[in-house]
Amino acid sequence: MLTDIQGYSSASASSSREEILGLIRRHNQLMQPVISFYGGTIVKSIGDAFLVTFTSATDAVVCAIIIQLILREYNAKQKNESHKLNLRVVINTGDVSVEKNDIYGDAVNITARMEGLECFPGNTIGISESTYLLMNRNEIVADKLGPMELKGIPYPVVVYLVPLERQKLTSIPTKLLELVEKSVNNIAADVDHDKFTSDLNEWSAAVTTFLSEKNLGHRISKNIVKNAGVVHRSLRETFTQTSVLGNKPAAELKDADPMTRCKAFGIDAAILFVSLILLRWLWALILRPIFFSSTGIYEHIVQFNLNYPLVLCFAYFLVFWFWRSASPGQTATRTAVIMDDGKVMDFATAAKRSALFIVSTMLLFGLPALTVFLSMKKTMFDYLCGTRVVE
Predict the structure, then answer these.
(1) With 0-12 CB in 10 A as exposed, 13-18 as middle and 19+ as buried, what is 9?
(2) Which residues pair with 91 in a beta bridge?
(3) pLDDT, tens digit, for every residue of 252-288?
(4) Residue 85: CA atoms inside 13 Å, Cβ hemisphere, count?
(5) Directed axis angle between helix 17-37 and helix 174-185, to 10°?
């Protein structure tokens, strides 16, 4: 990743040394915590430019998106045009050689040449095709601009633009905006070092907390243990995070989009499928040999429920709908089930809805749920139970 401030050379020519240092300090203070969070290594800083390496293409691009969102909010608060930071970020992926705290290679040369392309002005993010192919394209949106001739590079390089307005995350919360303003306002030359360090620590902690809560930019690695840790953390957050009912007033909730409901069902189906496999393995290898020395009625009951898991699925939805008004899949997609009058379900309603849902899904092939795609916005079992799914 190579970053630089558009118009820095002309601005520095007409600014005092103190103003230039203030600009660079703002630049460094706003960027460094985000780069650190995504595991970036700042190889060197040359005036207004950072040269940074990452172990993941996805982390590099998500890091650039967060930086540009922060700078967009920062610039909106600046009355003095000379204080604005119109940063351009370009990212390329390839092999490099590391020597004496510096990096060399074609990948570095291509990145440096991309920085000069007119299609990447200030406040934009440009990436090469090698980065595009290696990043998680489900997490990041990028528009192909086509092949570009780069000075000193013997072949055209295909480049892409990463539009901020079309990403999953398009804004940052008020708390971070307040800290952006506070941090920037307190880095004038007369602020003492201890105060500067304190503000920087607060800003760094806030950025890290926010990005952790949003779960943005998981490290992508071929290391199996590392991937297992990411999956474990994601599942833990799905089961423990607060339901959407705990985060929004009832008046702000709306009927959930049908595709969001399908996504929630897919997550629940995956959880139930994996759970059933684990239960069958536990039953066959451990529980059955230890507790059932001979075939009997209880063994037949357990075996029947493992083969036809209607009761297990019923219990799964009943427990979560009564306990939290949302299954794990709904929690992950920020949806929940409530009564038509906005109240939470009681036990009887949760049990009725669970039973009708299982019958609809497993015995009637989901046909009663198809009405959600019509203008009614509700399934047949929602009508029968007087419930609605909201987001």
Answers:
(1) exposed
(2) 127
(3) 678 888 888 888 888 999 989 888 888 888 877 777 7
(4) 29
(5) 150
Domains of the chain by residue range: 2-214, 241-390
What is the C-alpha separation between 31 and 83, in angstroms, rounded? 15
Q: Output the CA angle 119-121-125, nearest 5 degrees.
A: 80
- Report field, pTM of the whole predicted structure over 0.90: no
Lowest mean pLDDT among 13-22, 237-246, 272-281, 350-359: 237-246
Residues in contact with 116: Cβ distance below 8 Å, sequence separation at least 6, in sequence order: 151
What does the pLDDT read at residue 230? 43
- What amino acid occupies position 336? A
As its CATH architecture, domain 2-214 has 2-Layer Sandwich (3.30)
How far apart are alpha carbons 314 and 352 in whole angstroms? 10
Best CA proximity match to 377, nearest among 87, 59, 369: 369
Q: Which own/partner contact pairs does 189-196 have at CB distance under 8 Å and 24+ positions apart?
A: 189/18, 189/21, 189/22
Compute CA distances 390 → 105, 219, 361, whole Å. Answer: 52, 32, 20
Angle between helices 193-214 and 174-185 (to 10 degrees): 160
**Phi, psi for 372 (deg, rounded to 5):** -65, -20
Provide DSSP, 225-291. HHHHHHHHHHHHHHHHSPPGGGTS-GGG--BPPHHHHHHHHHHHHHHHHHHHHHHHHHIIIIIHHHH
Mean pLDDT of 175-201: 54
Strand partners, 255: 390
How far apart (Å, rounded) are the C-alpha atoms in residues 36 and 319? Answer: 41
